[in-house]
Design brief:
Length: about 230
Amino acid sequence: MKILGLIPARGGSKSIPKKNIKILNGKPLIQYTVEAASDSKKLERFILSSDDEAIIKVAKQLNVEVPFVRPKHLAEDTSPTLGVIQHALRFYEEQHIHFDAVCLLQVTSPFKTGAFIDKAIEKFITSGCDALVSVQKVPDEYNPHWTFKETIDGHLKLVTGEEHIIPRRQDLPEIYHRDGLIYITKTNVLLEQNSLYGSKLTYIKSPSDYTINIDTIEDWKQAELFLKSKNI
């Protein structure tokens, strides 16, 4: 299966200016994801999709393939990721180059590895599903079976709609949330179904160390502390 690794990195970050190329522990943030993609054995190739000249320059210095400049209308705050992926696929379709799936690797989730990418790809291929997402376990205190919504009369009701609360933590079903580390989706699902997930979705659990998503300056400080704790 031919899988395209896609690293999206637009300019114009507001919460952390120039976030994608800001130096984190001696390296631009984007380099962490580039190194993981480079170490993968199962990506057919990987590319950068960006609208920003400074990001493109850094990527090329890291020997990343940048086959096009992303259109500005796909680099706004509200631009959906799906459109960015579809743009890359259609670029290659025009050159009669086909990929069976796309592996989305977000710069803001820097602490993944090539081995983890390959493990996710293996799971995706063997599952036969339309897509795969990386996940983390939802802490028990936020499990839907222990969370409530307010009713019209001001009372509380389980969000699951159940009448009775599961009393023991050990009896709670394991629930997951997306962590943003990896998304893999079949090309036909992306282009024909206009979906990132399709109708059959599988998952891979991410090690907790991997799942720092850098969106705010507080997240950035957390990433710095993480690297310091690992003596990296």
